[in-house]
Amino acid sequence: KHPNTLSTMASLGTAYLETEKWDQAIEMLERAQKSQQVMYGPGHPESISTARDLAIVLGIKKKHQEAIEMLEKMVAGSEQANGRVHANTQKMVVYLALAHRDQGNLERAIELMEEAAKAFPSPELGYRATLRDLLKLAGKRDRFAELLKQDLKQLKSTQKPDSKLFAYEAVILGSDYLYLEEYGEVERLLR
Q1: Tag placement on the chain: N or C end, fewer CB within 10 Å?
Q2: Contacts of 30 (CB under 8 A, 6+ apart)
Q3: pLDDT tens digits for range 14-60
Q4: 137 vs 87, 98, 105, 121, 129, CA distance in Å?
């Protein structure tokens, strides 16, 4: 198939997803993904985008195991093509972590998110914030608090207090400190 045809198929699948036409979305995204695997391989951004959308709709349809199996194949293929620590591979790792979360396997989700957060610790990606959310869900308060303190220290050492990123991250970190009921830290962040 021509690359434009594949792109159109994937876009149509995404449109079905956004309009809640789940069965049509699955059909179109599966067709697009299979063809993209052949044409581009699993580590290509088009393949990743389609796999993400397909995993979302499979999750909506409560087909978590199917989503996990598809994402595991995508991770393995991307790792073979790009390496484990490549940005595209780690995006797939994040989607796989979220699929495990949706299936209720928080331990595996945390393990995968820890990998992604270690590989790409930049706050702009949100991997560490997602990891903190998973730790909260799993009731791992001590690990959550440890990660939160690391993230605050990193933020203070890498961003100027008047930057937009600092303000954005401070709000997120502040809400996480409220979870720990450390109100003094929230007040210090707001100053």
Answers
A1: C
A2: 54
A3: 999 999 999 999 999 999 999 998 898 887 888 888 998 999 999 99
A4: 26, 12, 11, 21, 12
| Closest CA relative to residue 119, chosen from 146, 169, 148, 79 | 79
Task: Return the structure tokens found at 121.
Answer: 């610790």
C-alpha–C-alpha distance, residues 158 and 171, integer Å: 16
- Provide the pLDDT for residue 1: 65
Nearest to 117 by CA among 101, 138, 136, 133: 133
Which residues, 6+ apart, have CB-to-CB distance to 49 below 8 Å? 10
3-state helix, strand, coil in the chain (%, to 5): 80, 0, 20
Tens digits of per-residue pLDDT, 85-144?
A: 998 899 899 999 999 999 999 999 999 999 999 998 877 678 999 999 999 999 999 999
